[in-house]
Amino acid sequence: MPADTTAQGQSGPAPTNSPDPIEAQDVAERRSGWRTIRKVAPYLWPDDKPWVKQRVVIALVMLAMAKVIAVTTPFFYREAVNLLSGEGASPAWMLGAGAVAITVVYGLTRVMNVGFQQLRDAVFARVAQRALRQLALETFQHIHALSLRYHITRKTGGLSRIIERGVKGVEFLLRFLLFSIGPLILELALTGIILAVVFDINYLFVLAVTIAAYVWFTFKVTEWRVRIRKEMNDQDTDANQKAVDSLLNFETVKYFGAEAREARRYDVSMEGYEAAALKTSYSLAALNFGQSLIITAGLVAVMVMAAMGVQSGDLTVGDFVMVNAYMIQITMPLNFLGTVYREIRQALVDMGEMFDLLEQPQEVRDAPNAKPIEVDGGNVRLENVVFGYEAARPILKGVDIDIPAGQTVAVVGSSGSGKSTIGRLMFRFYDVGDGRITIDGQDLRDVTQESLHAQIGVVPQDTVLFNDTIFYNIAYGRDGATRAEVEAAAKAAQVHDFIMSLPEGYDTAVGERGLKLSGGEKQRVGIARTLLKDPPILVLDEATSALDTDTEMEIQAELKAMGEGRTVLTIAHRLSTIVDADRIVVLEKGEVVEEGSHEALLERDGRYAQLWHRQANEDEAA
Fold it and tell me: How is 430-462 classified by DSSP, letter by letter?
């Protein structure tokens, strides 16, 4: 005990206004939940879609009819029992109809109750599916609108899981929020009124106490379970991310014999998931037992009161049966309340994560008055461009480069000098920090991104292909391209003959990221794709540096032919590939240190000459 006292004395008493972390988390989750409900609500009542409103109203009418029928059904049950037992004073038409007919009517009311519920679901289904589709599309479009900075830091597996869970939560939330909680409250209220009017106020009191205890216990335990479920989701996301990441890097895993290491990483995440899942199972058992105890206590109390009423002659056996029917009737939705509440909370959490994603700011946006770019020749100018991926670490420091229309300008330099950054800024993956980039005098920040992207073709160092056919990957260069146009682009890229030699020709699947093709084959498909796009401006971002010398020389000729009549920015690592450029710009530490033709730069015997001689020596040594 002294150790505890000492520890407390060292740390001092906690401030009285110190917030409880768990409570703070709950408050944050509730705010996030209300935010999610506010964002989803317009999908139930859109101003521009009157048919959606009509379906919602019809569904609510069906719901009300189902509940009214549900609370009147036990009356027919009671009268059938009274007619069979000879007790009570049934209405004249019931006496005339007889117990068998009343039993049939009782059955019909149960069928009608179910029928209206199913009609409600059928009417509402289109509303829910529309909302699901719209939210999924908005999320997909928003992710594509986010900057490259976001995409190079995201985790693909975790991101796909967030979208999947969020979209699935839409239909659940709309359906159960509208058709479970509200209807349950309505049914409980109607049942309570009937018990108070037909029997005694004491029945209503017992029912109210039972429901209050049940709801309090359910919500308290469920809040605890939601936190466990969120932990389970986090572990699931982490495990999925590790699995996707490991599979995407399958070859790297093999190169380093890391299968066991990857399995251990995955198993650690699954171990955390297992622990959280077990907590979820144990807490569910506790929740179910507690709910059963409370509802059974209420049921027994009401049934004892009814039994005493029958013994005293105040109630009939039919009344006893009706009370039992009402209690059982409300037991079913109450038993479902814990699940519904938990799933609604979980749907809110899942959708909250998706809305957090939707609220990720777009770093690069079109200006309010942005116009489509008009390219007349394609003169590209970088004027005193300053840029850094982080404010404290500038990459480009006042770069000036002029690429006249129809000419090829190469940018070279050591690693980290900012070569590839220039290509990304030209395509407007990022906006410049200072200075400006223009095409034919138009600042890239003043034109629409869509029109800018249409005017620039990029051939990257590593062409990544879709897991589809060769035809699809080449046709991706221009939406709606014909077979003849695709084949013409393939011929220009010197890849048509290779494609035709394959058993399935243009219908050959290339595999994940194009892994079924060699580096040279992928690069030619990428060149064909860009040729099909037919842009006036080209950016060749170290387009052959990942290839062997022979393949590089073959593709270099195709790239040169591709650049005829176009403005070309070549970002090069191997200087031998840019000796024919109209002008070469040498970058060092984000600044232009030299520029001129290949011959002029060699004569100057400066930085370019050093790089040239170094690479020549390396090639000889190889």
Answer: S--SEEEEEETTEEGGGB-HHHHHHHEEEE-SS
